[in-house]
Amino acid sequence: MTPTMTLTAPPASVAPPAASPAPAVTTDWLTRCVADEQEFFATHWRTAPAVLRPADPPVDVFTVAELDGLLDHGLLKVPYVGLVHEDRHVPTERFCEPRVVLGEVVEDYADAASVRGLIRDEQATVLLRYVDQWHQGVRTLTGALAERFGRQVEAFFFLTPAGTQGRPVHRDDADVLAIQISGEKRWRVHAGPADGNWEPSREDTDPGEVLLDTVLRPGEVLYVPRGFAHFACAVGDEPSAHLSLTVREVGTANLYALLQALVTGTVDLPGRPLDDAAMVAAADTLITHSRETLAGLTPQALIEHARTLMRGALPAE
């Protein structure tokens, strides 16, 4: 029987991981990510990329060994897991298999042998999406950061074979904190977008001046401001693993939607007024309600309310 190939060097096999215990509530997760909080916000936030070297980086929150165990455990499923090359996604049928659950066929469960084969033979990158939604330790980390940033924070895990590039040059609609877990990765970060009409996508034109060209090593954290074009390539002899924390920001679409909900959400109007007089009365009620609602609403309050809704938290009373 052919032995199982694991993603880590030792050990040769990894047992399914136990549920991750919740870290102590006294942990200062922001300091563990950015080192000096005051300097980070004063010098780098939304301004410039930077390599941060915290004294106690959260490299223990999610490891390659844990990925090994999850693959062997058999519950990883698309879209939470994917395989990608620089310019394309690996079709799910190449690394997934269906199962029969309660008499029904359920698709897209990741097959450990197929995943490892694609990593070995085709140098595919493993991408775990929204790790904060299904991993307790990562959820604790992102939840704490969301409180400090006042914004939604999500987590993605990348395992990239040595000498390969997992994604093309692109811009993210989020500020990114990339925590290097193991191996090394060379990052190049270019200038930010020219105006507010940019799109979060691959950058096929000139990405602008290179602001930072660095090799990230275990325990170091790379900060990439929202919209700054970037790409990365695993270097050295070992695969690179990093946990990417994305700090989401609202867009004008969020503001439009929230404003409409505030204006129309609590007013009681007939769906189809019966005559002109009823139509005028409905319009007058809506205008009056809108004026009263917007009278005390400040731009900053609208933005903060939208950020709160993105985080899935209840607004403060």
UniProtKB/TrEMBL annotation:
Region (Disordered) residue spans: 1-21
InterPro entries, per database record: JmjC_dom, NO66-like
Source organism, top-level taxon: Bacteria
Pfam families: JmjC_2
Keyword Iron: yes
Domain JmjC: 122-266
Names of required cofactors: Fe(2+)
Annotated keywords: Iron, Metal-binding
SUPFAM superfamilies: Clavaminate synthase-like
Coiled coil feature spans: none
UniProt KW tRNA processing keyword: no
This protein's name: JmjC domain-containing protein
Source organism of this protein record: Kitasatospora kazusensis
